[in-house]
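Ticket #4471: structure export looks truncated?
Reporter: QA, pipeline team
Priority: medium

Steps to reproduce: submit the single chain below to the structure queue and open the exported record.
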Amino acid sequence: MKLTLKIWRQDNANSKGKMQTYSIEGIEGDMSFLEMLDVLNEGLINKGETPVEFDHDCREGICGSCSLQINGEPHGPDRMVTTCQLHMRSFKDGDTIVIEPFRAKAFPVIKDLIVDRSAFDRIQQSGGYVSVNTSGNTLDANAIPINKQDADSAFAAAACIGCGACVAACKNASAMLFTSAKVSQYALLPQGQVEATERVENMVRQMDLEGFGNCTNTGACEIECPKGISLENIARLNREFLSANIKG
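Actual output as written to the record:
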């Protein structure tokens, strides 16, 4: 395939960025999107030009670091995949592809397509943990009966990889889906009850401090989430937050 790429280039967090156009040839349909960018960068390096900076790590759809806005969609046109799992067969010969970083006040651009998502880390640090000692005490932990539906829902919430697609998809740049997933994975289990009240209050407070917007109730976050995190988690977050405030 021969493609035209319109890519956001920005030297650093303080510089003004702009879209730059590149032409690329010889792209095979079985290449991943990141492999296509590797080919582009190899060509740029060979010409003595600065390669395009983008985040990546596992390239197996696990870590979520490969977050890119592709033709206006987080992780591109496919559903339930990260950018590294998006294949070029999703595009056609001659296509123009627009590639940008995730856009959010709380995700400032570091360089080119790389954004600082440490805001998510701070939300988790504010309450995304349990004080119950489960290390080396698996027999005791397994002795606590847990409803299978609750266990399944907790595991489904824990599948969130923190890529930020929910934020990029939301017109208010809300982090409600991410935060609710991290609250839900503990709220549904006995081990998470010890800090339940403080957890939801602290995580919501930190989410607001980071500058994320409010939930729009449009559901774009769930549609674009590569792990299919359900909007039911946002409803659970709201219930947990209301309950915590009533308890005082």
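Status: closed, not a bug. The export was complete when the record was re-opened. Leaving a note from the reviewer for reference: The beta strands are 3-9, 18-24, 69-70, 73-74, 96-100, 109-111, 114-115.
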